[in-house]
Structures are given as structure tokens and as C-alpha cells.
Amino acid sequence: MDGPSNISLVHGDTTLGLPEYKVVSVFLVLLVCTTGIVGNTMVVLVVLTSQDMHTPTNCYLVSLALADLIVLVAAGLPNVSDSLVGHWIYGHAGCLGITYFQYLGINVSSCSILAFTVERYIAICHPMKAQTVCTVARAKRIISGIWGVTSLYCLLWFFLVDLNVHDNQRLECGYKVSRDLYLPIYLLDFTVFFIAPLLVTVVLYGLIGRILFQSSLSQEAWQKARQPTGQGEGAPGSCCSRSKGSMSSRKQATRMLAVVVLLFALLWTPYRTLVLLNSFLAQPFLDPWVLLFCRTCVYTNSAINPVIYSLMSQKFRAAFLKLCWCKAAGPQKRAACVTASSFSAVQETPGGTEKMQLGSIEASGPTAAGSLHCQQEPHFSAL
Question: Residue ranges under compositional bias (Low complexity) (predicted)?
């Protein structure tokens, strides 16, 4: 059949027997997949087990982590066995199931990225509306819809792949339809789950950046105007420092999510471009080292997000450390970790002690009666 080039995320290499290729591919894929599986599992655990991590944005990040786990398990790990053995070993059912879960993870990750970008846009550009729209319950419904619709859509791949037998009797899980039928389907998938989400996220992050920039300018001007009256940034009990901290937290969260989107675009571009080009070329380009590079970029995209959270989010970093400490601690400390659902920070002030816990402010000491209370940052914007 005049089938498309077989360059899926797992199989289709033409030089699997090269020893150096086996060593490099197995080492790279195992390293990336192991790191990604551990990291994404930690993301799911810290969000599910920490009450203060239950926010709409983090719900979407859990959805993204689960999708990345599926990609790493369904695409990365079979690639290791394919490189070691040299042919497909999972049979016909494995061919259908693994291909299905590959595209399910890929497409859900793209939709999850789009969903948390829209949530960020509403939370920052329309904060009043966000208090009713950006809720954990609504996020869960959206995530359920994403997984449900994408699961149905990916059923299409059950009719597009099958086991192929080469002249040397080597089994390969590949496409069974002609290029004329496959190409429109791939272009639809490429447009709906890659190009369109990226275009929307670019526009939304541009609008978010403009709002944050304008807010920073207006906040600085307001602080300077209040400075002569003694109610400036450094005045005890003033709302200015908290407002500034809230804006800084929003910027940090937005930068982190923007980096996730940027890496998604960069790391998926080589593979998507290669598949698109080979869909039109009469003689597909199937250099095994290029294919390995493209696939490793995809696996890296699924593995790197927890690293980004740890580096750019203080809250995630503290939650990761807390989870690791609980796992390494003895039974008594582990029980204490389970019991403790939050932490408190105590800050000394000139008139007394101010205790902050779970986003609420309680003033104690001589300043309690005359303390100035500010409206706290809505829970939906916390990471």
C-alpha cells in the first residue's frame, strides 16, 4: 500500500541493529522517562494530598501530568524494548492500545495547556468574573470534558494502525491506510491539537502580559503618590506591600506557565515538522538518529514540566520537599506529615505579631484592635 512513512513515537527505525544506536537510545529514553515518571507522579501526589494546592490552575497541571505520564509509559518505554529487541513484541492488541494511548496523552496535554492558559487569562484580565468562573469545581468539569472528548476522538486510531510484516519477517506496528486517507486525518490532528492551541495561547499570554505591565505601572504610581503621607510601601499594616506581593505572585505563576507553553512548542516542533514533511515526500526521510532526536524531544517535553514547577514555583518546591521528607521519614514523622495540612509563617511587626495561615490574616498583640485588613488574593490565582 502507498502508506505514509512510519515514524510514530515508538517504532519505524531502519537501523535498529546498530550497537551504538541501541546504547544511546536506551540510555537517553530510560533517563528521560524515569525522570518524567517520577516527577509527574510527584506533581499528582502533592496536589491531591495538599489542601492548599487545590486550585483550578493546579487541577489543570494534574491533568497535564497524567497526560505526560501516559506519553512516557505508552511511547517512551516501548521504544526501549523496540531498540533492544529490534522488532515489535507487544502483538496486535498492544499495537492498537499503545498507539491509542500515545495520541490520547499527546492531545490531552495540548488541551490541558490551552485550558490553564484560558484560566490564567480570566484570572488576571477579568478578576471579578474569575471569582465565579475560575473555581475548582468548574475546572474538574472542564478536565472531565477534555478527557472524555479526546478519548472518543482517539478511537479513530484503532482503524489506522496494524501489524506489518517486512521481508525479513520482522514485525512492526505501523499504519495500514493509504497516504490519501492518512494525510487529511493527520493534518486535522496537527491543526486542532498543535497549531490552534499554540496560536490561542500566544494571543492570550500577550494580553496577560499587557495587563500585568499596566498594573505594575499603575501600582508604582499609586505608591509614589502615597509616599509623602506616610502610607507608602514600608508603612506597618499597609495594604501596599501585600498588593505588591500579590502582583509578584501572579507574575511568577504566569511566567512559569508561559515557560511550559514555550517548551511545549519548541520540543514538539521537530517531531511534528518531520512527520508533516514525510507525509508529502515521495521518499520519506527516516534517518534513525534524527528520529531519535525528535522522539527524545517529545519525551523531554513530558518529563520537564515538574522541573519547571520546582524551579519557578516556591509553593511547588516546598511541596516536593515536604513529600520527599515524608517518604524518607520514620512512621511517626510520616504520620505527622499526613496530619499537617498547612504551614504557618510568623512575622514580627513593630506593634505585635502577625500570623498568616492558608491565606488568612490574624492579628494578635497590641495591634489587633487597630490592624488594617486587606482583601486577600483569591484562591484561584495561587500556585
Answer: 237-246
